[in-house]
Design brief:
Length: about 525
């Protein structure tokens, strides 16, 4: 087996991560700076996906206009809040030469020769470039006409390739909505419509960063109520704006200036492209909402300069935001199988908040904060909790750091790579109450590093409400007893976690699902 990592090598089963089983993914994204950062991580993890589309999209925060001078104003948008009255506008926060997706792919092309040394499954730059399309970007929530982006999504949903198409919406969902509307217009009222509706409803899986242009609420859900949403949200890695406010003191290091500079900003072309606080950049010249590139100013001084300061400035070089990364963290091939039916959960958390994501409630809504005192009050209100268990933040951040290191390292021996982990037998077991289950894990490391393991129960994603105890949670071979009060049909989710001692330390998992029988 070549350099494919976090691969689950089950005896008698097909290994996950094979080309046939990688999730097929379409990214739709607007030009918010945290989208640009999310795209960098996405491309560094593009070994784990079959990227079918990279599509420019609009939102309530960004739209291009149609070039005719036509103006638009939608109620309760940011240009009419905080005492503002800035629209109707011919466009909103959109650069005349916007090309951030093309720039990210061009930067990927620069580092691709190094990346493929570390994993030959990275897609070619030409393949990624061929997937770029322009979607419904002219106006906020406009689904009145087809675009190259909506045409691509429509074709993917109607083709005969089996398996789902994951539709990531980092901005508004208008391009996705237009694809669905075009399908409805073509087939509604024909004898083919029931079959087409069922096919598309099974195939399309939304993974949205809220309903940023209201098209989910106004079109998608009323007309396509059976389309599912990828579970995510609870217990996931915080990466949105102000993420560093809510994480534990121990985890806050992964958002700090020093950690970000060492592991991200100083890592070649991709690291230089990644946005951080005070980096001197601005997505759109003159944007009064984008003061993030400035450093050395207080919130009051920024407001005096005319900026809308909804979160106070942070130290120069500190983590800024990847607010849309959670839409694909559960698709990553780390062994948690976070997107499989019946086992939802991964680095993006599990599915208790899926409905919230689908209906447009942002994981971290924007609030206006005028000072660090306000920030401290917000932090106190939200709470800086102890590190959770499981705590995915170190593993996810070190995973990004490793791939950025790959991008600047031309030899395989010059960087660390994920260990491999598997469990003997099937990852889907059944057992009766009171029965003892014996488990045996297997690990190896492509760099010859030492690997430590621990077994843990992911109680939040199992349906058995109680706890189980491992005979030896830090050994490859262990056992666990199904509790006597477990009911038929309940599931107990067990995870074997393996971490190497390389730099940075990298982690993979294998999940075992126990179904209780009688």
């Amino acid at each position: 087996m070549s350099a494919i990592f976090c691969v689950v090598m089950m005896l008698g089963l097909v290994a996950t991560g094979s080309a046939q089983e990688k999730p097929r993914v379409v990214v739709t994204t607007d030009p918010e700076l945290d989208d640009a950062n999310s795209l960098i991580r996405y491309l560094l993890y593009s070994t784990d996906f079959r990227t079918a589309g990279l599509i420019y999209a609009s939102s309530g925060f960004h739209w291009k206009g149609d070039g005719t001078g036509k103006k638009l104003s939608v109620p309760n948008r940011e240009y009419s809040r905080w005492g503002l009255n800035l629209c109707p506008c011919a466009s909103w926060r959109w650069a005349p030469d916007e090309h951030y997706i093309d720039l990210a792919v061009a930067t990927y092309a620069q580092v691709y020769p190094n990346l493929r040394v570390h994993n030959p499954n990275y897609p070619t730059p030409a393949d990624l470039q061929s997937k770029i399309r322009w979607g419904n970007v002219e106006f906020d929530g406009d689904i009145s006409k087809d675009t190259p982006g909506s045409d691509l999504i429509k074709a993917l949903l109607l083709d005969d390739e089996p398996g789902p198409v994951y539709l990531l919406a980092w901005g508004g969902q208008s391009t996705i909505a237009r694809a669905l509307k075009s399908i409805q217009l073509q087939y509604s009222g024909t004898h083919e419509w029931p079959a087409v509706y069922q096919k598309v409803s099974r195939k399309a899986i939304l993974s949205p960063s809220g309903d940023q242009d209201d098209t989910y609420a106004t079109y998608i859900h009323p007309n396509w109520p059976d389309i599912r949403t990828l579970p995510a949200g609870v217990g996931g890695v915080p990466l949105g704006y102000e993420a560093q406010v809510t994480v534990s003191a121990e985890d806050s290091v992964y958002y700090s200036t020093d950690w970000t500079r060492e592991n991200i900003s100083n890592r070649g072309a991709f690291g230089a492209l990644y946005r951080v606080w005070g980096d001197g950049k601005q997505m759109v010249k003159g944007d009064i909402f984008d003061y993030f590139g400035l450093s050395g100013y207080t919130a009051g001084q920024l407001k005096a300069k005319g900026y809308i300061v909804w979160t106070p400035p942070r130290p120069k070089g500190e983590f800024l935001g990847e607010g849309d990364t959670f839409t694909y963290l559960n698709l990553i091939d780390n062994g948690l199988r976070g997107y499989e039916a019946g086992t939802p959960g991964g680095w993006a958390g599990h599915g208790a908040s899926a409905a919230t994501a689908a209906t447009g409630q942002s994981p971290l809504p924007r609030v206006t904060i005028n000072s660090y005192d306000d920030l401290l009050r917000l932090q106190e209100a939200r709470g800086r909790s102890p590190s959770p268990d499981p705590d995915f933040i170190p593993a996810a951040q070190y995973g990004l750091a490793a791939r950025l290191l790959w991008s600047v390292t031309p030899t395989y021996a010059g960087a660390n790579h994920e260990p491999r982990v598997s469990v003997r037998g099937s990852p889907a077991l059944s057992a009766r109450p009171g029965e003892t289950i014996r488990l045996e894990g297997l690990t190896s490391d492509p760099d010859g590093n030492a690997v430590t393991v621990r077994w843990w129960q992911w109680q939040e994603v199992g349906t058995y409400p109680g706890k189980v105890t491992f005979s030896n949670p830090t050994a490859l071979a262990t056992s666990v007893q199904v509790p006597p009060d477990a009911a038929q049909g309940q599931t107990i989710q067990l995870v074997l976690e393996a971490t190497d001692n390389g730099t940075p330390a990298l982690t993979c998992y294998q999940r075992v699902v126990v179904t209780v029988t009688r």
